[in-house]
Amino acid sequence: MKVAMIGTGYVGLVSGACFSDFGHEVICVDKDEDKIARLNQGEIPIYEPGLEDLVAENVKAGRLSFTTNLTDAVPDADAVFIAVGTPSRRGDGFADLSYVFSAAEEIAASLKDYTLVVTKSTVPVGTGAEVEETIRLARPDFKPGVDFSVASNPEFLREGAAISDFKRPDRIVAGVEDERAQTTLKELYRPLFLNETPIVFTNRATSELIKYAANAFLATKITFINEMADLCEKVGANVQEVAKGIGLDGRIGAKFLHAGPGYGGSCFPKDTLALVRTAQQFDAPTKIVEAVVDINDNRKKAMAGRVKQAVGGSLKGKKIAILGLTFKPHTDDMRDSPSLDIIPMLLADGASICAHDPVGMEEARKHFTDSITYCDSAHDALKGADCAVIITEWDEYRALSSDRLKNLMAKPVLVDLRNIYAPELMAEDGIDYHSIGRPYIAPKA
Ligand SMILES: NC(=O)c1ccc[n+]([C@@H]2O[C@H](COP(=O)([O-])OP(=O)(O)OC[C@H]3O[C@@H](n4cnc5c(N)ncnc54)[C@H](O)[C@@H]3O)[C@@H](O)[C@H]2O)c1
Fold it and tell me: Does the structure show a pLDDT above 90 at 194?
């Protein structure tokens, strides 16, 4: 089948590359000329494990290409995916759908014969219907359900594991309003059908809501365990053991029960907020999700206080080593990363920051410019530091030697916001170690 992928970001590029790997002929479109120029030179503009090879193989096979010109891709396409960004709208937190509708208008102008238009972007309930209306108004000669269909096919991939998530998903959700849309989607995802991946066909509104409900539920799970961590700290309990103890219950499940600095990333913060706003608009407020949004915002801000406490109450003149800047490992994505809350607060309190991240430095520079020092390695960042803070649990931070910490740092104080070390071992090694929701053990002299 011929596929046009509008938006070549984390979702569009991965989806486009995977669809071409399934054997479809895919043209990825993006307005960002620099991004397309880099892709056309074989350069991948984002960090995503495995993506470079996948893109190269499919470009070589002639199934995958890139353009800034939507009219190169849409007229001949059987299916056009909208995978543009839907960030939070400034001021009110609703999803900003301007990119989606402008893409829909451009698509409408280029339609030639029957085409399935699919929103892969995360969009609020009712957006598919509005996209359909946009196309209908722009093209009175095109009848919905006959000359074109609009379907919803939200994406559940995780950055860092995006290719395997796309190719081996837990499920595919597809919202359709007519038979032809369903047939076309089945054909697009046929390789996964053959693998017996569950495909949930539903109506468009349900499909749109499933995506928000899934993200809100996962964000709630994280927030729940974060609150348990706070309680553990007060009562001398261990949150990792609490998570294990509840997670072994099949009704609860072990995933998304890692206490930490609060969720960030390109999806959970904006999607929880957008769900809250939609629910308020329809007079069916999601009180649980409202609380989750509020608790998580406050939590990220509270993390700087933990660092302050660990260095004795004042950050003035202290050198703080930051290990990890991205919102999670295996991505260069900085969107809503906890580091964006924590670092400015440390700076405002008079600390100087030496930061390291294995792949996120280029993105981080866009946010922190010259307010912090960028280090080539974790060891470089640790040199002379009064405290080290692990914000992102990159593998290379999991085996820092206590001796190196003691030798390199001015004081061996480690604030581990991801619980990747054992408090007993750290104390034994003489590290003043502070973690989340686990009892503090004073270091052996
Ligand atoms: N990133 C994730 O992990 C993830 C996971 C699941 C769902 N989603 C959802 O997928 C959507 C895309 O997210 P993303 O992270 O890939 O965004 P992104 O910001 O990385 O990419 C969006 C791309 O769309 C391009 N674009 C915008 N308007 C365009 C237009 N009219 N024509 C052509 N290109 C246009 C932008 O230049 C940009 O390159 C969002 O709705 C997001 O919520 C993201």
Answer: no
The answer, yes or no, to whether any atom of ligand 1 lies below 6 A from the CB of 30, is: yes
CB of 124 closer than 6 A to ligand 1? no
Same domain? For 235 and 198 the reply is no
Centroid of ligand 1 to alpha carbon of 13 (angstroms): 9
Is 387 one of the catalytic residues?
Answer: no
| Same domain, yes or no: 247 and 146 | no
For 126-182, write each residue's pLDDT tens digit. 999 999 999 999 999 999 999 999 999 999 999 999 999 999 999 999 999 999 999
Residues 227 and 143 in one domain: no
Q: How far apart are CA 244 and CA 258, in angstroms?
A: 10
Q: Is 121 in the pocket of ligand 1 (CB under 6 A)?
A: yes
CATH code of the domain in which 56 resides:
3.40.50.720
Q: CA–CA distance from 209 to each of 275, 331, 343 (Å)?
A: 9, 26, 34
Q: How far does the centroid of ligand 1 lie from the alpha carbon of residue 134, in Å?
A: 20
- Cα separation values, 271 from 133, 227, 376, 419, Å: 24, 21, 34, 26
pLDDT tier for residue 11 given thresholds of 50, 70 and 90: very high
Residue type, 264: G
As beta bridge partners, residue 434 has: 415
Q: Are residues 157 and 216 in the same domain?
A: no
Q: 251 and 144, same structural domain?
A: no
**Domain of 60, in residue numbers:** 2-202
Q: Contact, 224 vs 192, CB < 8 A?
A: no
Residue of 267, 354, 375, 387 with catalytic role: 267
Burial of 261 (0-12, 13-18, 19+ CB in 10 A): buried
Residue 275 and residue 161 share a domain = no
Average pLDDT over residues 103-113: 98
Are residue 146 and residue 61 in the same domain, yes or no?
yes
Burial class (CB in 10 A: 0-12, 13-18, 19+), 168: exposed
Number of domains into which the chain is organized? 2
Question: Does the pTM exceed 0.85?
Answer: yes
Domain shared by 107 and 232, yes or no? no
Distance 100 CA to ligand 1 centre (A): 10
Q: Categorize the per-residue pLDDT at 56 as very low, low, confident or very high, splitting at 50, 70 and 90.
A: very high
Could you tell me if residue 402 is inside a domain? no
Query: How many residues make up the chain in this entry?
Result: 445
